[in-house]
């Protein structure tokens, strides 16, 4: 059986690796990281999917530049074909509901919607399915970890102390359910004035490094507070493809390269048996 294949979810059987992008709190750039990571992975030649699992605040359709009213194709009255954008397959609750309306759903409804979209989408053969998780450590995180074999998680934070406290909770939660931490991404690490070039740490300094040291994980990158990242996301053309030669795009590719390397190491360790010889 493949690492993340489950008997109850045939639509997931062609997915080699499920990578979750998570944060302890909202507003730290998690979805921006997920989108640009997915696009950077695609540039390596991999087949990539992106699942927007943020049920209450789906933003992936906007970030990928998909027009309002985009809907997945329904097959055999149950399963759905994912929407394609910029060469990746994607799905989101934002394709299925009016995103202008508040999602007043209780926990079981949220988990049900999450599982239905994940399991009833014809993802096909994918090297990576990147899952943009909702912020926090709640029902959806636990449901995903308990229902499929997640390859690993990327934790997104800012240097701010409160964001780091919430990121710690995320790392602790994934540790309890046996999901490896692939690394930490620090957003808004520095601000460089566009007028004079002065650099300052608006939200604090060194927080992600301390977090990584505490838990024995790697800092994948520290991205600056860059207006271009936000503007291109709002325009539906993430910076990896809008400004491929920019420093920020290079950092996202660096993140993707480290994720690929770590995932290969994890999969190799799972597939290589440990042989011990004992003299009788």
* CATH architect. name: 3-Layer(aba) Sandwich
Measure the end-to-end span: 34 Å
Count the domains.
Answer: 1
Tally of DSSP β-strands:
12
Rg, Cα atoms, Å? 19 Å
CATH topology: Rossmann fold
The helix content is 25-40%
> Main beta sheet, described?
8 strands, mixed
Order of helices and strands: EHEHEEEEHEHEHEEEHEHHH
Strand order of the largest sheet: 5-6-2-7-1-8-9-12
Percent of sequence in beta strands: 15-25%
Name the shape in a single word.
Answer: globular
CATH superfamily: P-loop containing nucleotide triphosphate hydrolases
**Would you tell me the structural class of the helices and strands?**
alpha/beta
**Uncertain residue segments:** 1-7
Structure description:
The protein has nine helices and twelve strands. The protein has one domain: Rossmann fold (3-Layer(aba) Sandwich), CATH 3.40.50.300. It is α/β, with parallel strands linked by helices. The longest helix has 25 residues, at 247-271. It is globular and about 60 Å long.
